Amino acid sequence: MNTENLNTAAAQFGLPLYVYHSEKIESQYNRLTQAFAKVPRFKIHYAVKALSNVSILKIIKNLGGGLDTVSIEEVQLGLYAGFAPSEIIYTPNGVSMEEIEQVAAMGVQINIDNLSILEQFGTKHPTIPVCIRINPHVMAGGNANISVGHIDSKFGISIHQLPHILRIVENTKMHINGIHMHTGSDILDVEVFLYAAEILFDTAKNFKELDFIDFGSGFKVPYKAGDIETDVEEFGKKLTKRFLAFEKEYGRELTLAFEPGKFLVSEAGYFLTKVNVVKQTTSTVFAGVDSGFNHLIRPMLYGAQHHIENISNPNGKERFYSVVGYICETDTFASNRRITEITEGDILCFKNAGAYCFSMASNYNSRVKPAEVIWHNGEAHLIRQRETFEDILKNQVIPSTIEEPVLV
């Protein structure tokens, strides 16, 4: 995406605005599939939670991918987008047995990460194939909130509880058709990932009728020029060799699966905002924009860095700015960041805004959510309308006793 295209989208659809570039999603998808081209049975399940717009899901479907879901609503979105139930894996955490059974009735692949639920489900539905999510106790990820494979994580069944898993499987005679792990996001060290993979291979030996092994995801993407990222090509070569060797040892053809979210959509996304005010204080120059952490929470929640460009003045002289939002509490996107000179009315572009940005947006401060646009085949297409004040009121109900005051 170039500056001209982004400015065109801003003029056409207004601000603030999310813009996604379909070609980048496709190139990332192809990059991963090519890294594992020597694996006969390879499957990508896109992590819906990263960006759940139905148009994005349809792009993934057209590329040949499946979906990784964590809620019944994400499953329903996938079915609505045209995915077959067999193309969807459902990996909830802490949900009710009732929800899991509802999803199972839809024909979706169930992935269980809790001993209690595993036993309950196996007792009631022993013929329904189930995948088991293992916690390998490997600390990996760029932030404590997105490291989910360590010993204190709520996710997965501890690898040390494998005897309990085997006892449940034996007692219920349930059918285990997959083994799964996810260690965290922003993983740089390929060797750490390969170490966790060995734990998964060792675990898989205990189950004789597996159809697939799911390695989750967590590949790091670059957030600025020259930033480091996961070398998926190197990882592809090393894991392919090890996976094919294990497949021969196992004596059965297996599917190698991944669940990328951020890797596929992060770099495809751009968030455009207008500068409402430039405010000079005794120590800082603030650029206040027409958005806040209600639209993009990652900098405040994770300390995430999003490269910011002034696309109204891309070739101007650089100055230092703190970019802040309009939410009525600390709401900082960037502190003392070098950006080309900003004036009120300029458009700032936040890069890497495709993953966990709109999908984590809220109506905090009773602000409406932005529109979403996809740049596809050389044109901008609206894929979500901007909310209105009527949307804020849509599901609110005023009891009659509150509508009219009671006079005493």
Automatic annotation (TrEMBL):
The keyword Lyase applies. CDD domains: PLPDE_III_DapDC (cd06828). Substrate binds at residues 298, 302, 329, 356. Pyridoxal 5'-phosphate binds at residues 218, 356. Keywords: Amino-acid biosynthesis, Decarboxylase, Lyase, Lysine biosynthesis, Pyridoxal phosphate. It catalyses: meso-2,6-diaminopimelate + H(+) = L-lysine + CO2. The keyword GTP-binding does not apply. It is an enzyme of class 4 (lyase). InterPro entries: Ala_racemase/Decarboxylase_C, DAP_deCOOHase_LysA, De-COase2_N, De-COase2_pyr-phos_BS, Orn/DAP/Arg_de-COase, PLP-binding_barrel. Transmembrane segments: none annotated. The modification N6-(pyridoxal phosphate)lysine is found at residue 49. Its cofactor is pyridoxal 5'-phosphate. GO terms for molecular function: diaminopimelate decarboxylase activity; pyridoxal phosphate binding. The active site is at 328 (proton donor). PROSITE patterns: ODR_DC_2_1. HAMAP family: LysA (MF_02120). Homodimer. Belongs to the Orn/Lys/Arg decarboxylase class-II family. LysA subfamily. PANTHER family: DIAMINOPIMELATE DECARBOXYLASE, GROUP IV DECARBOXYLASE. Specifically catalyzes the decarboxylation of meso-diaminopimelate (meso-DAP) to L-lysine. This is Diaminopimelate decarboxylase.
